[in-house]
Amino acid sequence: RKLGYAIVGLGSYATNQIMPRIKDCEFAELKALVSGTPAKLEKFGAEYGIPKTHWYNYKNYDRIRDNPDIDLVYVVLPNSMHAEYAIRASQAGKHVLCEKPMATSVAECEAMIAAAKKANRKLMIGYRCHFEQHNLHAVELVKTGFIGRPTLITSEHGFYAQPNQWRLDRPFSGGGSMMDIGIYSLNAARYLAGEEPVAVSAMEYTDKSDPRFKTVEDRIDWQMRFPSGVIANCVSSYSSNHNAFRVTGTKGWVGMEPATNYTGHQMWTRQGGSTEQVTLPPPAKNQFVAQLDHLAEVVQTGIPLRASGEEGLRDMRLIEAIYRSAREGRTIKLA
Ligand code: NAD
């Protein structure tokens, strides 16, 4: 049988991107809804044919334990709620897919990993780009030497954040652009480099007179040095639109723009003095379906888990180092 997902938090990403795509999964289906808003349970329950017995709110959430139709829990709440709802799902004996950023601190990430381990359940983070074919192709080109020896990565992500939302309220977001869109620059730099950075140096600019930025940062740019000598220049912004990366080596480069959007990825390569646009055939599963299916397949067949809690923790450690570097105005060496 297909494994059943419970979706926790019926906000924009869950209802516009995730829920409509579960029907295309090979290994999973939508079985339960968790929301604090009864009207949303009524609306989406009707739309997706989810019976009332499979509706939960944040108070009776732990009762998912008693529902054998729920195998997998997808946490799509504001960042500061990820840890609590992922841990409660693990304690209820369910496997967890949790949105990025994994949580708002290293300590929370570690607690989530410990809870999943204790319950002997899987914990995966919503790094959909790890399942997106252009991103996977870019990684493959770097790995197989298409660009020669990699030397430089640029990775830019940003959008203009509209006022009055939890993303701009630190107790809910844990931080500004870095915690939301900047993590794409960071994660892409790491998967393109194929190794872990050894040093990070960051600079922040936030206009404190802008009412959007009372508690969180706007722009934070940083460099990372990797053991092989690759240097990454990364951008995170809530005041400008960016969605691109390029990895350059001794023989050429691979670039994408948009690089990590939901759709419409465009890719170019350069080698031997000529630049070409790369067109890939449509994938069997888009990134959303592939990501949703992956956790179910891991549980059913025992294939190795990609985008694990440990991967989320690595990014969170780096985010803390990036903030620290910007705050202290110095390069942070990483263990
Ligand atoms: P959203 O504001 O649209 O949805 C958040 C949901 O949480 C809402 O339904 C809201 O009602 C609910 N909620 C419950 N308790 C809340 C509280 N105390 N305060 C505020 N909201 C509360 O946000 P979103 O854009 O859907 O983001 C949700 C998560 O998904 C975030 O962690 C975000 O980083 C992540 N996300 C990931 C992607 C991606 O491409 N992987 C894209 C968008 C969002």
Helix content: 25-40%
Spatial extent as radius of gyration: 20 Å
CATH topology of the largest domain, anyone? Dihydrodipicolinate Reductase, domain 2
Strand segment count: 15
Shape: globular
How many structural units, i.e. domains? 2
Strand content: 15-25%
Distance between the first and last residues' Cα: 44 Å
Would you tell me the structural class of the helices and strands?
alpha/beta
Major sheet: order of its strands? 14-13-12-11-7-10-9-8-15
Q: What is the average of the pLDDT values?
A: 98
Question: What is the correct CATH architecture of the largest domain?
Answer: 2-Layer Sandwich
Question: Main beta sheet, described?
Answer: 9 strands, mixed
Report on the architecture of this protein.
By secondary structure, this protein is of the alpha/beta class. The protein contains nine helices and 15 strands. The chain has helices at residues 12-18, 38-48, 82-91, 106-119, 133-143, 170-173, 177-193, 287-301, 309-328; strands spanning 3-8, 28-34, 55-56, 72-75, 95-98, 123-125, 150-158, 199-205, 219-225, 231-237, 242-249, 252-256, 267-271, 274-278, 332-333. The strands form two sheets. Strands 14-13-12-11-7-10-9-8-15 form a nine-stranded mixed β-sheet. It has a six-stranded parallel β-sheet with strand order 3-2-1-4-5-6, sandwiched between helices. Helix 3 runs parallel beside helix 4 (106-119), helix 4 packs antiparallel against helix 9 and helix 5 (133-143) packs across helix 7 (177-193). Nicotinamide-adenine-dinucleotide binds at residues 9-14, 36, 76-79, 99-100, 126, 128, 166, 172, 180. Nicotinamide-adenine-dinucleotide (NAD) is lined by residues 9-14, 36, 76-79, 99-100, 126, 128, 166, 172, 180.
